[in-house]
Specification:
172 residues, alpha+beta, 4-stranded mixed sheet, 13% strand
Length: 172
């Protein structure tokens, strides 16, 4: 467990990036969501240690912070893989085979919704809608700030796309 994940180190040492965030928003009423968003932008997720640090510096109870973090689907309490697969489960995608696409992803990567591969390369997240209904079934793969959309998927095409991403990673 790293210092950022535990509560046993000096939190100022573990979260220097949060100092300016908390200076700007820590005393502003109603700014918890902004603080959590910025924390997740910095670290990729909301660790136990970060939540405890935010609680300590803002005076907001950790349970209240967890309540907000677990209510909104935008927040993650676990690290995600380098490539975040967002599989659309909206109506158009559902009727066009999104469940079979999810099955293919699970077969190829060995993960289900909300899980990350052991090598940390991929995380699968089912989402309500990607707004690409004409491409159904569709998934988006986000790597850092870049996103690529894959549409009109079949079990074979999704496996091929994932293998291509893996091959590109191995070539680096």
């Amino acid at each position: 467990m790293s210092c950022k994940e535990s509560c046993c180190c000096k939190k100022e040492d573990a979260f220097p990036e949060l100092i300016s965030v908390l200076q700007n928003y820590g005393s502003v009423p109603g700014s918890l969501i902004t603080i959590l968003q910025k924390t997740q932008e910095i670290y990729g997720y909301l660790s136990v240690g970060a939540i405890e640090y935010i609680a300590e510096k803002t005076g907001i109870k950790p349970a209240d912070i967890y309540g907000v973090a677990t209510f909104y689907t935008q927040f993650r309490l676990k690290p995600i893989g380098k490539h975040l697969i967002m599989l659309c489960k909206g109506t158009a995608c559902h009727v066009n085979g999104a469940d079979q696409i999810e099955e293919a992803i699970t077969e190829e990567l060995g993960i289900g919704d909300g899980e990350t591969t052991g090598d940390g390369l991929f995380t699968l997240n089912n989402v309500a809608c990607l707004g690409c209904c004409s491409l159904a079934p569709v998934m988006m793969v986000r790597t850092g700030e870049e996103s690529e959309t894959y549409g009109n998927l079949t079990k074979d095409s999704v496996k091929e796309a994932l293998r291509k991403i893996k091959a590109e990673e191995e070539a680096k």
